[in-house]
Write a structure and sequence with these properties.
Number of strands: 0
CATH class of the largest domain: Mainly Alpha
CATH topology of the largest domain: Rhopdopsin 7-helix transmembrane proteins
Helix content: over 70%
Shape: elongated
Largest sheet: none
Strand content: under 5%
CATH architecture of the largest domain: Up-down Bundle
Order of helices and strands: HHHHHHHHHHHHHHHHHH
């Protein structure tokens, strides 16, 4: 049994297991988000496509017979799989109209790839097509760069908004969108050269497998911890909802003058927020800008303007300040309570979030701050 066959067999098993993980985790999540589930099935489709690819490579021996034939078959399967992974990211990160434009671009590149392969096959009736192979490899490089640059730009464009409008812990989101995807992109880009030279393939191949596992596990972890950002992600992805709330495109907002709230509206928002805080609604760990807007009956766009122009802060910082003040009062009133109890009672999603906010505000841990108050 050759080393190449073992590598292909390992790839087949790894993607089969990742497919199983993605499917089984669907029935274990507590929050079902429509956009997230669409992304899940895009990843499942990509994994199944790669399983078919490695099965064909093992059964037909394309790579074993010729590196040129193996490279062409790699490109024919890796290109749509890469587009499916990119689509899974864009499905979470940008609204429908922009996503459709990107999908159209991906579709054009995919059609061009199959047309180049089809013309070479018709001319030579074999996988030996040196001229068409150069065209295919160029298209594959362009496809990989497109599938990397576009999602990363959308992640950068959207991350600040998610951070500003989410009150809970968003580390699973950050790990998925940056750590997991960036690692996967780097190794996948190296695969562009590795598929042409077999010795390099034995080095890059395992690295791609490892990054794919990390990427999928980060995606699954995000699904288990989706509650704090559920409605924010849905709001980002739904273009009609964004327009209903009065959101403009980024380019339009840059040209337009900042909107000013009339004094009467400022007083209404202040009173609504004061009543919301008096009812201790900030203790809800899943609260975000969308939920706050629905709870107090104020349009999200107006809330954003109010936080920016009158409080000179963001929703996330404002909510953290309120929870921090509540945690201080709670610790003073109940010094015997554990940090887990304090974090749960004050709306923090985890003990680590309580530690972080105390360290940022006071330079001390909650225990050190409590001991200082009791001294």
């Amino acid at each position: 049994m050759s080393s190449l066959f073992l590598l292909q067999y390992t790839c087949l098993l790894v993607f089969a297991m990742q497919t199983l993980v993605l499917v089984v985790s669907r029935f274990q999540v507590s929050v079902v988000n429509r956009q997230y589930e669409k992304s899940r099935w895009s990843l499942v489709a990509a994994a199944v496509l790669l399983m078919i690819h490695y099965g064909l490579q093992m059964a037909c021996g394309f790579r074993a017979h010729s590196d040129d034939a193996g490279t062409i078959v790699n490109i024919l399967f890796y290109t749509p799989a890469t587009f499916l992974v990119a689509h899974s990211i864009l499905n979470l990160e940008c609204e429908k109209r922009r996503r459709r434009r990107y999908d159209l671009l991906f579709g054009i590149l995919l059609v061009a790839t199959f047309v180049a392969f089809g013309s070479g096959w018709l001319r030579r009736n074999s996988l030996y097509m040196p001229y068409e192979q150069m065209v295919l490899h160029t298209l594959y490089l362009v496809s990989m760069l497109t599938s990397i640059v576009i999602p990363l730009s959308e992640i950068h464009r959207n991350r600040s908004r998610v951070e500003a409008e989410t009150g809970g812990d968003i580390m699973p989101y950050v790990r998925y969108t940056w750590a997991g995807y960036l690692l996967f992109c780097c190794t996948s880009l190296a695969l562009v050269g590795a598929i042409m030279w077999r010795p390099l393939l034995f080095v890059i191949g395992p690295a791609v497998l490892l990054s794919a596992v990390i990427f999928n596990l980060s995606f699954v972890a995000m699904g288990y911890n989706l509650a704090p950002i559920d409605e924010v992600l849905t709001d980002v992805a739904d273009a009609s909802q964004s327009m209903a709330d009065g959101d403009a495109d980024e380019s339009a907002s840059d040209d337009a003058a900042p909107e000013q709230l009339p004094p009467e509206m400022v007083r209404i928002v202040e009173a609504a927020l004061a009543a919301w805080c008096a009812e201790k609604n900030f203790r809800d760990t899943t609260v975000n800008m969308v939920k706050l807007s629905q709870s107090i009956g104020v349009v999200r766009r107006i809330l954003s303007i109010y936080f920016d122009q009158h409080l000179h802060t963001t929703f996330r910082i404002w909510l953290s300040d309120i929870r921090f003040k509540e945690a201080q009062d709670y610790i003073k009133a109940h010094p015997e309570y554990t940090n887990e109890s304090v974090s749960s009672a004050c709306g923090f999603t985890s003990r680590s979030q309580l530690y972080k906010i105390f360290n940022d505000r006071t330079g001390m841990t909650p225990r050190e701050w409590r001991d200082g108050q009791m001294a």
